[in-house]
Amino acid sequence: MRKIISFMHISLDGFVAGPNGEMDWIKVDEEIFDFVGKRISEGDTALYGRVTYQMMENYWPTAADKPTATRHDREHSKWYAKVHKVVLSKTMNDAGLTNTTIIADNLTDRINEIKQQAGNDILLFGSPTATHSLIQLNLIDGYWLFVNPVILGRGIPLFADIKDKIKLNLLTTRQFTCGVTELNYTVDRQ
């Protein structure tokens, strides 16, 4: 069965965005882009909430065409074009969307159907609201966290309204030169 892996930048105190959704505190550089690029290139399905999906759609389809496109922009744009996108949204429909599935209801059943299909891990990018919904339904199988060396004090937490404790097993860690630490966990289902 395929797994859903939540890919998220977080602050040291567990926030994924500031109080107004700001993400200007996130550190990324070529070292992180190279590391992440290798991992996500194995993915064939990306999962987004509506807001994150719309941000991605506004940038990635044409990012490689810009004269200032970096190597990362070209590679990620190519990956984004071929990956199947799944969007959690009650307001969108998939009419006219290419290689995109919209899930508006029956979240547990629909996600489990996708998990049963052939393919690689399903990568959940950002999307705190969607992540909160999937956590509450116990549908996330792993967390790939990039802990940024900053304390925000307030904002949008990664883990909110958790009803039952979630046990995790640490798979790997990596320290990047810019101070970001990667923590790769799998959910302990025992």
Give a brief rundown of this model:
With 190 residues, the chain is an alpha/beta fold. Helices cover 29% and strands 28% of the residues.
Number of helices, counting only DSSP H or I runs of 4 residues or more: 5
Secondary structure class reads alpha/beta
Percentage of residues in helical conformation: 25-40%
In the CATH scheme, the class would be Alpha Beta
Our estimate of the beta-strand percent is 25-35%
Q: Can you walk me through this structure?
A:
It is a single chain. The strands form two sheets. This protein has an eight-stranded mixed sheet, with helices on both faces. A two-stranded antiparallel sheet has the order 2-8. It has helices at residues 30-40, 50-63, 71-82, 107-116, 128-136, and strands spanning 4-11, 15-17, 45-49, 84-88, 100-103, 122-125, 142-148, 156-157, 168-175, 181-187. The mean pLDDT is 92. The protein is 29% helix and 28% strand. The chain is globular. The chain has a single domain (4-158, 182-186), classed as Dihydrofolate Reductase, subunit A, CATH 3.40.430. It is built from five helices and ten strands; from the N terminus they run ββαβααββαβαββββ. By secondary structure, it is an alpha/beta fold.
What's the structural blueprint in terms of helices and strands?
Blueprint lengths: L3 E8 L3 E3 L12 H11 L4 E5 H14 L7 H12 L1 E5 L11 E4 L3 H10 L5 E4 L2 H9 L5 E7 L7 E2 L10 E8 L5 E7 L3
Parallel strand pairs: 1-6, 1-7, 3-4, 3-6, 4-5
Antiparallel strand pairs: 2-8, 7-10, 9-10
